[in-house]
Each structure stands twice: as C-alpha cells, then as structure tokens.
Design a protein that fits this description.
about 230 residues; globular; 4-stranded antiparallel β-sheet; single chain; 6-stranded mixed β-sheet; Rossmann fold; about 30% helix
Length: about 230
Amino acid sequence: METKPDKKRILLSWSGGKDCSWALHLLRQNPEFEVVGLLTTVNQHFSRVAMHGFREELLDLQGQAAGLPLWKVPLPWPCSNQVYEALMAEVCQQAVSQGLYGIAYGDLFLEDVRSYRVEKMAGTGLEPIFPCWLIPTAQLVRQMIAAGVRAHLVCVDPRKMDSRFAGRLLDEHLLSELPETVDPCGERGEFHTYVSAGPMFSGTIEVSRGEIVERDNFVYADLLPAPHAQLS
C-alpha cells in the first residue's frame, strides 16, 4: 500500500488582518502544507497586537476560531528593530527544533518586504512561503468579501486616507469610497484590519466599535469584544 508523504508543517505570520486570514484559508486548501500555529507579535506594555493595535483578548478569540495555537512574541515598548530581529531569530530556532518546515506570510506585492523576509529566513533552516503573492488586490479583496470575510479597519494612516474610515467594515460600499491612490487591500500601509469572521474560522467573533484615537501618526479604532465573548 502506497503511503502519502507527510504534509509540511508550518507557522503562519499572523497580524489578525484580512491578508494573513486569507493566507490561512488558501493554505488549508493546499495539500502540501499544514499550518500548526499562528505567529504574532504583541506589545507587552499595552497588551495589543503590534501595528494593528487591537486588544490581545481579540487575538485569543481568533486563535480559538482558527483552532490553532498562538505563538506570541512579546515585544518591549518601545522596540528597536535590532531587538525585534533578535526575538524573531529565537522563534525561528524554536520552530526548527520542533521540526517545522517554514513560515508563511500574507504579503501581496511589495518586493522590498518579501526580500527582507527571504533575507532574514536565509540560514535559519526555515522556508518562507507566500500563498497570496501577486493576486491582484482589487480581485483579492472582493474574493474575501464574497467568501464572508468580515474585517473592520482598526488602523488608518491619515496621511494616506481620511481618518473617517477608521472602525468601518470593509465592504463594497467602503471600496467604492476609497481614493484611487489607496490600494484596495491597503498593502502600502494605508490601513490595517481585524477579521472577526470568514471561511478560515469556525464561527463569528462578536465585536463592537469603541473609541477612535490618534496616536503616533495613526488613527486607531478600538474594537471591543462582546461581553463574555465566545464564538457564535
């Protein structure tokens, strides 16, 4: 009897946003890979996911919805790039020691970001994987919406788009209002999202919009988990 080769066990770099969520969806349809964990950086001073700025409690709910363990990397605040890279190098060593094959990323088209990841992964024993790479973003975002991905804009760069978009749901109505200079997936840093539902999750994470604040040149919409939050 012929035996099937084992799947390549990988981590997925996880920001909690739509692109990494879609990467999880695609990877689960790929018989070559098995995602065994979500790798996330958390600002330990504020207990919030780095860059996107949403609450760690909401991250935990995503892990439950995805049915995957979270590999949390606590970041000091402030955090230099040198410290960040040293912490990520430790994670890579841990992944190799557990026999993992690589780390997947939700990057879409920025060559410099991809090159940076490839450079830092070189020599670690891990392979970088890019399941969403070069899917046209106008097409991609509509695929996500059609598939039931529910994503709120939790961070907006007011230098690139109007701050009134912060906290809104990413849907066709919002897309119709985006300036032509803004990538539909926010790939150039125009906005970041939090996903509360989609085909990669076992249920919906109930959230409501809290206050909107401007901090460090970005506008953040604070999402609040429903009281006694659990998957619905």
